[in-house]
Amino acid sequence: MNESRYLGVTPPISTEKPTAKEQEISEELLAALHTEGQFERDDESKNREIVLGKLDKLMKEFVYKALLKHKVSESLARTCGGKIFTFGSYRLGVHGAGADIDTLCVAPSPVNHDDFFDIMVELLKSRPEVDELVPVSGAYVPVIKMKFGGVDIDLTFSSLMQPTVPEDQELFDVNLLRNLDEASIRSINGSRVTDEILRLVPNIPTFRLALRCIKLWAKRRAIYSNSVGFFGGVAWAMLVARICQLYPNACAAIVVARFFRVLLRWNWPDPVLLKPVETCNMRFQVWNPKIFPQHATHKMPIITPAYPSMCATHNVTQSTQRIIMSEFKRGLEVSEKITRGETGWEELFAKNDFFRRYKYYLQVNVTSTDEDTQNMLHGLVESRIRRYVGFLEGVDLIVLAHPYIKSYDHNRICESEEEAQKVRDGIIPADTRPQDTDAARSTPTSGTEKNEESTNAAQSDKSKNHIYVSAFYIGLLLKEKNHDFNGKRRMDLSFATQEFIKIIKMAPTWKEEENMNISIRFLRQSQLADDVFDGQPRDRLRNSSSTKKKGEKRKQNNDSKKRDKDDSAASEDKPTKKVRAIDAAVPSTSGVAVKTSNDTPNQHGQDPGSAVVEGANGKTAVATAASGEENKNSGNKKDKDAALVNIPAPVPAANKIGGIKLKLLGSS
Question: Which residue among 179, 311, 441, 656 has the highest number of C-beta atoms inside a 10 angstrom radius?
């Protein structure tokens, strides 16, 4: 490769071509992804094409009706066009079986967002193949979510300032953005960013295979969700694209291994850039932490390559950053074992242990009596739960608040109001004949059939309470208890909880009259519902070294107490009464070693095996350049920090069990 021509903001770290052994490991990766079901069948691909074709025709019908509403003549309205664009995983070519399709509807002026959420929604409701239709007009990127012919679709909208949208319309030209509103800019940029990513990778097949691997790994490790504070699909794609730029000739297996090595040692919050940030003479805000103070608060900024550049990871919190870094560390260890032939790819894709990792959890329950209402309520809480995590991080005893990336959804038919109230409180009895909402959603149902089923259900269960419930979970890791302290520790969650509920209830979509309800429960791990374990063992993970130390400490204390008791008994005729110190009703993680400092790595002490990657100005962060070489300087501060980001296994559960139900301000 000519060093004067390269993709990205810095030269490649290595341009070495893969060895025969590395190619073999990449073939094993491809086989493993097939085994994991990451490629859809031919009939599924064909169905997606049919669905997109129907959507394109529906889009043109929508534009026609909207233009008539705006007093455009019928003959002219028929010629103004309209076009759909795909983006996200489908456009990148890394979608798997059952994945959704991110779709952008582009219309000519004067069609607007109000028309989209009025006329388009009505057109979709009239289609028998449309199910689970949920318009979210108030979202950061307004979207219509639905199933169309059994395919999950996220439909966004943008109106261009031009009279027609021809079939050959492209979105590369930055001048198309002039005079567009903010919602249209955010919508249209989804497609522009995806196309720009594909343009900026040196080898698209290698990029796609490596990205499929990273996406599966991130989902299995429960760190694939932008809304709750981790990375979304576009962020993972940009990270893989950046590693492809740094190792342009590497095969997919080596790109994956270098992915973990580089990002574990990345000098966050220096940004990840695929190209220099563009500045155009337009009114749009471009990511720049030197000008905009809120941009300087981003913890792991990954910047979109299309103008106007934005941070795709602004939702990352202090807790989710630590969790991501701990998974990078595990990923590096496993990937190195794979390259040495010591294990297979299935170890990298091992399922997360979230529900066995912590001693204490918060369960956020939202319920309603209508499926459509519940869908809106679910989206509201999912998009706000990271705010709760932020509030919890401010509680004195909490070291880490770990949100889980998915909810557990059910609908329940309750025989009595007392039973219904338990469900609203998040206590789901085993004998309520559960029907899993997720399972119900997996089967396409026509609009007519759906209405008939709803009517029949309402008639048959008229005297019963039908409740839809979604449960979100947050794992809590607390500060280590001082062994010299024998009293009760107090942890006040009231402010964090009250503020979160205020945020939920102040949202426009919250309506008390529609039987919406939110409750939050504090649980020990032993009190978690069976369904969260998916048939896996409930036993909590144990930190063997800390358990051994605790046992030795307990033995020493018992020996000491015995000696004191013997001495006391020898000196007094009256026997002493043994006093039992009861540990706090508030949780403790005694024996768990946790690194809480946020040391800044030394940016000047670069080791000989390092190369400049990029930083706030695109050129200051350090990543190890030598492909198979460990850092030779064992005292290097950056490596010490990298080794300490691992989240330790919690201590064994206490014998005493019993949940604490929080009394919440404004909750019912």
Answer: 311
Q: How far is CA 319 from the centre of its chain?
A: 13
pLDDT digits (tens, 9 = 90+) for 9-46: 999 999 999 999 999 999 999 999 999 999 999 999 99
How many whole angstroms separate alpha carbon 461 and alpha carbon 515? 17
Average pLDDT along the chain: 79
Calpha distance 143→528 (Å, rounded): 34
Cα distance between residue 494 and residue 496, in whole Å: 6
Residues in Cβ contact with 532 at an 8 Å cutoff, skipping those fewer than 6 apart: 355, 408, 473
> Is 215 designated active site?
yes
What CA dihedral angle connects 629, 630, 634 and 638, to 10 degrees?
Answer: 110
The pLDDT of 238-260, averaged and rounded, is 97
What one-character DSSP code corresponds to residue 119?
Answer: I
Per-range mean pLDDT, top range of 179-183, 343-347, 443-447, 618-622: 343-347
- Of 115, 131, 154, 641, catalytic: 154
408 part of the active site: no
CB 1 within 8 A of CB 12: yes
CA-closest candidate to residue 300, choices 266, 262, 257: 266
Contact 18, 255 (CB under 8 A): no
| SS3 readout for 145-180 | EEEECCEEEEEEEEEECCCCECCCCCCCCHHHHCCC
CA atoms of 414 and 607, how far apart (whole Å)? 65
Q: Which residue do the tokens 């609908």 mark?
A: 411
**Which is catalytic among the residues 60, 64, 90, 102?**
102
Task: State the Cα–Cα distance between residues 271 and 268, nearest whole angstrom.
Answer: 7
The residue assigned the tokens 């198309």 is: 176
Interior CA angle at 46 toward 45 and 47, to 5°? 90
Q: How far is CA 344 from CA 26, 242, 333, in A?
A: 11, 25, 12
**Half-sphere exposure (Cβ direction) of 26: Cα atoms closer than 13 Å:** 20
Q: Using CB atoms within 10 Å of the CB of residue 659, give its burial: 0 to 12 exposed, 13 to 18 middle, 19+ buried.
A: middle
> Span 330-351, mean pLDDT?
96
Inform me whether the pLDDT recorded for 56 exceeds 90. Answer: yes
pTM of the complete model: 0.78
Could you confirm whether 468 is annotated as catalytic? no
CA distance 414 to 427: 12
Contacts of 396 (CB under 8 A, 6+ apart): 479, 491
Spatial separation of the C-alpha atoms in residues 52 and 105, rounded to whole Å: 11
Per the annotation, the verdict on 100 as an active-site residue is: yes
60, 83, 147, 215: which one is catalytic? 215
Task: Please provide the distance, in angstroms rounded to a whole number, between the alpha carbons at the two ends of the chain.
Answer: 65
The reply to whether omega before 135 is within 30° of 0 (cis) is: no
Task: Check residue 314 and give left, alpha or beta (phi > 0: left; psi -120 to 50: alpha).
Answer: alpha
Mean pLDDT of 569-596: 33
The residue annotated as part of the active site, out of 64, 224, 388, 408, is 224
Query: Which among 26, 64, 89, 158 is annotated as catalytic?
Result: 89
Under 8 Å between Cβ of 293 and 315:
no
DSSP codes joined into one string, 59-83: HHHHHHHHHHHTT--HHHHTTSB-E
> What pLDDT does 488 receive?
80
- Reported as a single tens digit per residue, the pLDDT across 260-286 is 999 999 999 999 999 999 888 788 889
pLDDT of residue 260: 98
Catalytic residue among 56, 100, 152, 607: 100
Lowest mean pLDDT among 87-91, 208-212, 237-241: 87-91
- As a whole number, mean pLDDT of residues 505-531 equals 89
